[in-house]
């Protein structure tokens, strides 16, 4: 490895001093010194933060080989069998996309309930969680270090990550507020939005209702089970202006999708799908983060933290605005049928999709 000299080491170490938590984690990962950081803190912290930093800085400069031999460790947690996770992992494995300050430790999980990685996770300076289970595991078995996430669908896990203040990421679904703002622009005449949920999702639905009201929509929500789902969907579809799909465990299958598509044709009220796959089947549109955007965010987030010790803001630092994050997958035939005329401001976000036949 090329030695870049004392100025490089000083610049690198100064980044570690910006935040005490990051500084300590970085030293644990980098130093290789025999004295644990906790002992150094106990001895020298009473002298003041600046004195403590200078003392540890001196130790680093006295042992440059230790500094140059080690890197920050970032552990990436993902489900090995999920194709979308595999695609993101391939991007992270590209050595040109992540700052050289990081040593990437890939932790594939074989099951949704897998645990027992506490020691491995706590050795990392940073964690990356792909998927809901990975994020739950990182929060439960990590040591409070900062992290990045993607493809997380569980509201509870997202709330915990947000409340910690030490995580940034892109969830599985584009936030309700962003989707409804887009729908207001594409379907300005729509007033009543219908959707169904399970009993476990009532908290999430209350969020949807509050956001919808702020944007001038009336939210009509129904609680479903596997026994009554078709009847509830039909009742809601008869009285809405558009039907908004959310991920309901056990509900999204061929039978319910066919029912929604049949009601879209019969009532002439558009169906908002979960993903491009639903649009290819005949839904009017879906609003999504693409896997490439998620991979780009994780790569840039790791690089920013490795270089500056800072977590990037998803919308502003990474994308330059929320409007640059999402893609609108619009069914070409349904757009014509429902007279959808995208405003100029959204044209760059739209990808036309064919499929589903004609109405």
Question: How would you sum up this structure, described in words?
Answer:
With 359 residues, the protein is an alpha/beta fold. Helix content is 47%, strand content 17%. Strand 11 (327-331), helix 17 (332-337) and strand 12 (350-353) form a beta-alpha-beta unit. Helix 6 (83-92) packs parallel to helix 15, helix 8 crosses helix 9 (155-164) and helix 12 (229-238) runs parallel beside helix 13 (254-267). The protein is elongated, with a radius of gyration of 24 Å. 35% of the residues are buried.
Feature tags:
single chain, 359 residues, alpha/beta, 4-stranded parallel sheet, 17 helices, 12 strands, 47% helix, 17% strand, elongated, disordered N terminus
Integer average pLDDT: 84
Distance between the termini: 63 Å
Shape: elongated
- The total count of helices amounts to 17
Low-confidence stretches at least 5 residues in length (pLDDT < 50)?
1-36
Multimeric status of the protein:
single chain
The count of β-strands is 12
State the secondary-structure class. Answer: alpha/beta
| SSE string, helices as H and strands as E | HHHHHEHEHEHEHEHEHEHEHEHEHHEHE
Largest sheet: 5 strands, parallel
Strand content: 15-25%
Strand order of the largest sheet: 2-1-3-4-5
* Share of helical residues: 40-55%
Radius of gyration: 24 Å
